[in-house]
Amino acid sequence: MGQTHDSKCGGYFFMDQAFSLAHVWSRFTSSDTLIAAVITVAIPVLIALVRNWLAPRSRLRYGTVTNMVMLPTRPDGTPGSLRVQRVRVFNSGKKSAEQLEIIFNWKPPHIEQYPHLVTTEQISADGRYILRIERLNGGESVDFSLASDLPGDLPAIIYVRANGAKGKPVQFREQIWFSLPIRALVAVIMFAGVFALIYCLVLLFGWLLFGRAPLNNL
Question: Which long-range contacts (CB under 8 A, 24 or more apart) does 199-205 make?
């Protein structure tokens, strides 16, 4: 009996809560002053969030492009082993990345860079190999080709950072590049989908605030 009574009390409690919320929502939607105040505050906040999201910034991405083992023949005729790895640092943002630092586990026996940006190197106290680039423009990338004929793996990038940004590891892979008409068609379809989504959200927002009147005009 006690459990039945508690369950009934719990049911009444949730009914009272639902009634209170419905009553508050009804009072809110019936007051033009409250609705105007909420819209007045919400619109600038939404605009500020969108502007902050669309603000240009640097986005650093890094990862391994190729990793292979070659078996060349040494001058004395014996088979050799050559490990080759190409890593890439890419700024996918619209803002330049200043004071870029690329940190490897250790310095490889051989390293080449393309494009040939002005780069300085340093060996830290714990043996880390640090490359510094003054600036990496938005949409620009730099590749490092590592090679070694010694046993063991090649060093990996352990961290990438710049002034106000830090790198994120990604997996680079081959991608099919479609022609301009196909890309334009996809862009038009995406724009139409975004417009339809915004239109539906406006209708839903109007229905929640003012009742079913906006939907009746469809």
Answer: none
Domain containing 146 equals 60-169
* DSSP H stretches of helix in the chain: 2-29, 32-54, 180-210, 213-216
CATH code assigned at 64: 2.60.40
Same domain, 143 and 197: no
How many CB atoms are located within 10 Å of the residue 133 CB?
19
85 against 216, higher pLDDT: 85
Q: Using alpha carbons only, how large is the chain's radius of gyration in Å?
A: 30
Q: pLDDT by residue (tens digit) across 5-33?
A: 444 444 444 445 444 656 655 665 566 66
pTM for this one? 0.59
